[in-house]
Amino acid sequence: MQLLPDGMIGENHRSNTELIAQGIANVVIPFFGGIPATGAIARTATNVKNGGRTPVAGMIHALTFLLIMLFFGKWAKLISMSCLASILIVVFL
């Protein structure tokens, strides 16, 4: 069975590499005040639907997200959860 992004692009990803990276991130992030989390399938699906096919696309997406949070975070926190939920629904349809 393929995961959603794999099915969207017709390829398989290296799940062991992904799990090791998530594990390291979840161990380190509490030192910076973060909360451990899993991969964000919604952001991955959005990236794939907009043409991202390689790991570089994921890295660029992560850097863009970081810059948005650094420079526009005080406004981004004002977005309601219902608005974010509706965006997720549109992404997966």
At a glance:
This protein has 93 residues and is mainly α.
Structural description of this entry:
- This protein is mostly helical and 93 residues long.
- The protein has one domain.
- The chain has helices spanning 4-9, 15-28, 41-49, 55-76, 81-92.
- The protein is globular and about 35 Å long.
- It starts with a helix and ends with a helix.
- The model has no long low-confidence stretch (mean pLDDT 76).
What is the end-to-end distance?
Answer: 20 Å
- The ordered string of helix (H) and strand (E) elements is HHHHH
Largest sheet: none
Catalogue the unreliable spans: none
How many helical elements?
5
Topology, element by element:
Elements: H1 4-9, H2 15-28, H3 41-49, H4 55-76, H5 81-92
Which features does this protein show?
0% strand; mainly alpha; 68% helix; 93 residues; single chain; globular
